[in-house]
């Protein structure tokens, strides 16, 4: 498992979380963080400030 730092939310008050995930997948503009087969978090890609730093599978 790998820890990923995710920054998301409104630009004026972004939220930073650390997520333990083994896969990050984007489908239809929604990014889902998985640990095994469990979805831990879903966020619209447009709301993730550091999306370019994450290994998002398409």
Structure, described:
This protein has strands at 2-8, 15-21, 23-27, 30-35, 38-44. With 58 residues, it is mostly beta strands. The chain has a three-stranded antiparallel beta sheet, with no helix packed on it. The chain has a two-stranded antiparallel ribbon with strand order 1-2. A hairpin with a 2-residue loop joins strand 4 and strand 5. The chain is globular. The two termini are 19 Å apart. The model has no long low-confidence stretch (mean pLDDT 97).
Provide a brief overview of the structure.
It comes from Actinomadura gamaensis. With 58 residues, the chain is mostly beta strands.
What labels would you give this structure?
DUF2283 domain-containing protein; three-stranded antiparallel β-sheet; single chain; 58 residues; mainly beta; globular
**Total DSSP E strands:** 5
Helix and strand content put the structural class at: mainly beta
Tell me the major beta sheet: 3 strands, antiparallel
Mean pLDDT: 97
Give Rg in angstroms: 11 Å
Bulk shape = globular
**Number of contiguous helices:** 0
Low-confidence stretches: none
Termini distance?
Answer: 19 Å
- What is the H-and-E element order? EEEEE
Strand content: over 45%
Helix content: under 10%
**Spatial ordering of strands, largest sheet:** 3-4-5
Oligomer: single chain
Organism: Actinomadura gamaensis
Protein name: DUF2283 domain-containing protein
Topology summary:
Layout: E1 2-8, E2 15-21, E3 23-27, E4 30-35, E5 38-44
Antiparallel strand pairs: 1-2, 3-4, 4-5
Protein name: DUF2283 domain-containing protein
